[in-house]
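Human: If only I could read backbone structure tokens as easily as an amino acid sequence. Underneath my words sits a plain record pairing an amino acid chain with its backbone structure tokens. Take your time, and here it is.
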Amino acid sequence: MSLSDKIKQTSQEIFEEVKANRRHLHQHPELSFQEFETQKFVRAALEKIGIEDVKDIAGTGLIAEIKGKEANTALTCLRADLDALPIQEKNTTEYTSCNAGIMHACGHDVHTSSLLGAAKILHQLKDEFTGTVRLIFQPGEEKLPGGASMVIKEGGLANPTPKSIIGQHVMPELEAGKIGFRKGIYMASTDEIYITVKGKGGHGAMPHQNIDPIVIASHLIVNLQQVVSRWAKPDMPTVLSFGKIIGNGATNVIPDEVTLEGTFRTFNEEWRMAAHDKIKSLCKNLVEGMGGKVEVDIRVGYPFLKNDEKLTGLLQAAAAEYMGASNIVDLDMRTTAEDFAFYTHVVPGCFYRLGVGNAAKSISAPVHNPHFDIDEDALKHSTGLMAWLAINSLK
């Protein structure tokens, strides 16, 4: 029996266990950097597999290694994220979240249970491959500064430095059984923007006595779109969106200040920093020109995510061999962001997509949605494929 067939057979044998792990994690979600019980659960699962020397990293994360039949310098990493989102789940299933206001709405329960399954496969078949696979279960993907950055600072990609790192992420737009890849730049950088416009409040019937921050903020939101429409190069995807505006006045009360919160995303670090300066400059000039004052806080988040061309090409071919070429799709660039990007600026990385949708079963809600769910048949592929890709990346 070939190695890929052995992996497929083992993946089928552990399917119910992987599904049970996913359901447990889904029922007991924890927010970023608060994954204390999740960490305990994952540690116990790794020890049950027989993986020794499991270490804490980045607070509530874990790191461990599986060594193949021969010790050499070949080392690859597999990564999963542990945290959930502050969302109230609206699904009614036997595994609906038990924690009010917290939900695995981005599929991290799938990522973690899949990596546990891949770990079991690799441990059982460790005499079948050469090299070492490092397992990284990281906290806090959903919240700055990003658990990946903390893993790197604490030496998760050192002693020795791996030759590659591989990450998997659910994609409900893809049907279960499909896998997506993209070579090169794939996902955007992300920065959080916080703006406070200060004016002078008063009676709405006597605006001449006030400096109206509502009007100033309205002009600011519109004018800041020049960053995208006039200052960004036409061939450089750029997004500037504001999702929150607070001006606590009333129908006849002009407030003293207005706060804006938004996000800035792009795919080039030089342009990214230049755009920050333009945002700050425009805010200052426009607000002060209208008689107000402004404070701008841009919190630098994750960099853009780049999939190493050579590694991704190798793994896409390996995935086609394992899953069948018709089940492998090419992905478009996305302006969503992922802290896996930090890893890809340190070592060659490949971040691919696992199809989890099923239109026939009405499983199609997007991630970060209170109705998000998966076709659990995707777990039949997620574990074996991850193990197979790890082994191929060691060659």
Residues 269-289 form the longest helix (21 residues). The chain has two domains: 3-188+304-393, 191-300. DSSP finds eleven helices and 16 strands in the chain. The domain at 191-300 is CATH 3.30.70.360 (Alpha-Beta Plaits).
